[in-house]
Amino acid sequence: MSKIAVFGGSFDPVHKSHIQLVEFALKSWKFKKVIFVIAYAPPHKSKQYASIDDRVAMLDLAAEGLAQIEISLYEALKKEVIYSYQTLDYFQSLYPKDEIYMIMGSDSLLELPAWKNIDYLASRYKFMVVKRPRVKIKKDTKYLDRCVFAQNETEDISSTEVRQMIKEDSKKAELFLDEKVYSYIVKRRLYK
To answer: Considering the entire predicted model, what is its pTM?
Structure first.
């Protein structure tokens, strides 16, 4: 049985920490592939800033050179809120002989109890968790038994902060983005 990782998010924009997470997943657990799933409207966020087409283009640029990567518009094309359990069920139906994992940062692990149908989700799937700086996981954290942890820690970057830097014309944003992604954002005048 092979393992497939699903990594959902807005990727608005995709930044270096997102790519580090995927690199850790491919290296550490030998996933057959990692599927980026671009959210149309994540349940925990109120707004998207770049179009779906722009987010796909930025993901293509950021993931260039990474083998075993796929970008899915499953959620984006639905044009409605899709919950994680629905997305993982969808990919399990596509790959019935494979084990499906969800990639997340340790900050998301702490938010799991609030997710829709989390008991169902945790009973069927495992979570590949990458440590985020300043996030403490306790031994009694719920669903810990459904997690595998990466040994590495990702950089502390958020898309919200990157968008704010771009809006303020700060060159600092360039440090957190792939060079090609940064050029794309500048050329398309995104997040201004």
So the answer is: 0.90
